[in-house]
Amino acid sequence: MTSATRPFARFEWMLAGRYLRAKRAESFVSVISGFSLVGIALGVATLIIVMSVMNGFRHDLLSRILGLKGHIMIEGVQTALPDYDAIAAKVREVPGVVHVAPVVEGQVMATANGASLGVIVRGMRRDDLKVMSVVSKSLAPGTLAAFAGDDSVVIGQRLAERLRLAPGMSITLIAPRGNVTPFGVTPRIKTYRIAGTFRIGMSEYDQSYIFMPLAQAQLYFNLADAVSGLEVMTDDPDRADALAGPVSHAAGPGTRAYTWEDINSSFFGAIEVERNVMFLILSLIILVAALNIVSGLIMLVKDKSQDIAILRTMGASRGAVMRVFMIAGASIGIVGTLAGLVIGVAFCANIESIRQGLSRISGTTIFDPTIYFLERMPARMDTAEVAAVVLMALTLSFLATLYPAWRAARLDPVEALRYE
Predict the structure, then answer these.
(1) Model confidence over 58-102: pLDDT tens digits?
(2) Strand pairing category for 229-234 and 209-213
(3) Each residue of 107-149: pLDDT tens digit?
(4) Element (H, E) at 231
(5) Which pTM does this prediction carry?
(6) CB–CB of 384/55 below 8 Å?
(7) Spatial separation of the C-alpha atoms in residues 151 and 343, rounded to whole Å
(8) Distance CA 409, CA 394 (A)
(9) How far, in Å, CA of 138 to CA of 374, rounded?
């Protein structure tokens, strides 16, 4: 007989498989192993699903915010921005800038059919609205052609539904600061014809934004030949901070430039913090499942101590015994991780259908768009993140096998067989 065996020999795999398929009298060990496998699978699947949903939420929210507003905003330091066309021409020459649009923006009250809502009016030129694809692609044919004159506006679909309006009908806008009279400032009230409606899929914008031709917005808000600011679109939103300096320098004195990150820093910062905290919390599920592997293997080693002693007396080395139990424990981790990966990917691929099905079964609204801004539950899997989750689960599963396997290898055959 030899005391040395080839690492991971066939008999080591055979023994590990035999130990995992326990007999009825040893079924408790198999139950613990089964719970460990299920725990790892659920932990991996849950982590993949939650991280993918949060990635999708951030991506969809960001794409809609940046689709409706510029990556960089230029405003006057104290007043509205005059000579905006000349400033826009200079900003367009900055490398990385792809589009510059003058914008007039103000808050008003919209009323129709006895209902009133606070909304934001954005005055834009028709060509600039056409470039804003997140809005223009949702417009019905002919809407952009009708977006002209002094009495046409385009409103959000949710706003139209709440005020019971349709294209061709009228909406009344009331601005708090209007004409100056001897009795003070009176509100400006004007009725506009709805040229069409847009739907970008973000409820907050679909129910609170109205687009108006730039010249009419200047007249409505008493801005004469000035605008609220210039919206700058860049070739890469992530480079907005780097381009803010050159853009501000091109705009000249009397202006200030700030990026979309400056405006939404607290919002997206909160999303990032929540994402990191959720990752840490859900990782504990995998850790608990890995600890179950430890307890299951320790019980298995104790139950199989006589078998281990006989193997040692027949020539099996300590390394061979250790590898047997490492294979047994790692098999639970690998199978559980792969099962969790399949479940997580399948769930993310069909998450909207699953949400709708659960909503029908429970009779409740899951992922209310009025609360979560978006109309569909998003899921965007990041390959690197999924790989990190899988690698973490496999690593914890492997580490969980080391101590029980080491105890099995250190078992003294004489002590184990003394009372047999």
Answers:
(1) 777 777 777 778 888 988 887 788 888 899 999 999 998 988 999
(2) unpaired
(3) 999 999 888 899 999 999 999 998 888 888 888 888 888 888 7
(4) strand 229-234
(5) 0.69
(6) no
(7) 54
(8) 22
(9) 16
